[in-house]
Design a protein that fits this description.
Strands 6-7-8-3-9-10 form a 6-stranded mixed β-sheet, sandwiched between helices. Helix 4 packs across helix 5. Helix content is 34%, strand content 28%. The longest helix has 16 residues. By secondary structure, it is of the alpha/beta class. The chain has a single domain, classed as P-loop containing nucleotide triphosphate hydrolases (Rossmann fold, 3-Layer(aba) Sandwich).
């Protein structure tokens, strides 16, 4: 699905990613983890084509990320960032229907199939009850679920999530993660997500990329990458396995004392 070979990127003279190498398989739930400033969001910006001025090679589904047109990329990937700015008071249904834009001719009206898909994904994300409400009237967490529905309406091959559950309460975050994990299991899409919660990552990730100081500390199966030793080396915290996939995390000695 995604392969990085010696990928480096700098904002002006400040290096953010340095010699990044990894390979992520498709059809899985992939999670990028790392401390603040480790380059996680920047990596996603390269994948989505927001930035193309990187060194090295970054391929998505066997093709250089820089080689996709905007139209091709819109039919292939959908993105849900942490905070979505809303400049127009769309109804929630109209906003979700915007996700169908890559699949129809310019200026073509919504078809019945478009409406059916929009209603289905709104029902899946528990947002159908907001269909006639203005997006500007919703709370941050409710709004994020509507934008997730819009991304799912796009029917992407790859769904990219940049801390997309930060504004949701725990119940809704788990509901959405369960929904996406089920879609991955059914072969409907692949997921590439940035998560800060190591416990959520341990529950849902099939494979992980651990970033520290702009470099890859580990890339591969989540079961190995979320072992306490890797967590300690990446985050400078102590972690203990709880059950099969759980983690209990405490501040490391250095951070706790100073």
């Amino acid at each position: 699905m995604l392969t990085a070979s010696q990928v480096s990127f700098s904002y002006r003279a400040a290096p953010v990613l340095q010699g990044v190498d990894f390979q992520l398989k498709g059809g899985l739930f992939s999670v990028v983890l790392g401390p603040n400033g480790s380059g996680k969001t920047t990596l996603l910006r390269l994948v989505t084509g927001e930035r193309t001025d990187y060194a090295g090679e970054l391929t998505m589904f066997g093709r250089e990320c820089r080689g996709y047109s905007d139209e091709e990329r819109a039919r292939l990937i959908a993105t849900v960032p942490q905070n979505m700015e809303v400049h127009f008071p769309y109804t929630c249904l109209d906003l979700v229907l915007l996700g169908r834009t890559p699949h129809r001719s310019r200026f073509a009206p919504n078809s019945q199939a478009d409406l059916d898909i929009a209603e289905r994904v709104m029902d899946e994300t528990d947002t159908l009850r907001f269909a006639d409400r203005l997006i500007t009237e919703l709370s941050g967490g409710e709004r994020q679920r509507v934008f997730l529905a819009k991304a799912l309406a796009q029917e992407p091959r790859l769904l990219i999530l940049d801390e997309s559950f930060a504004n949701m309460d725990m119940y809704q975050a788990i509901h959405c993660l369960d929904l996406l994990a089920d879609k991955v299991r059914r072969g409907e899409l692949s997921v590439l997500a940035i998560l800060h919660d190591l416990n959520l990552a341990s529950q849902y990730a099939d494979q992980v990329v651990l970033l520290r100081d702009g470099r890859v500390a580990y890339a591969g199966p989540a079961e190995q990458g979320l072992e306490p030793a890797w967590v300690r080396d990446t985050f400078s915290v102590e972690a203990v396995k709880v059950g099969k996939r759980g983690l209990a995390v405490t501040a490391g000695k250095e951070r706790a004392t100073g």
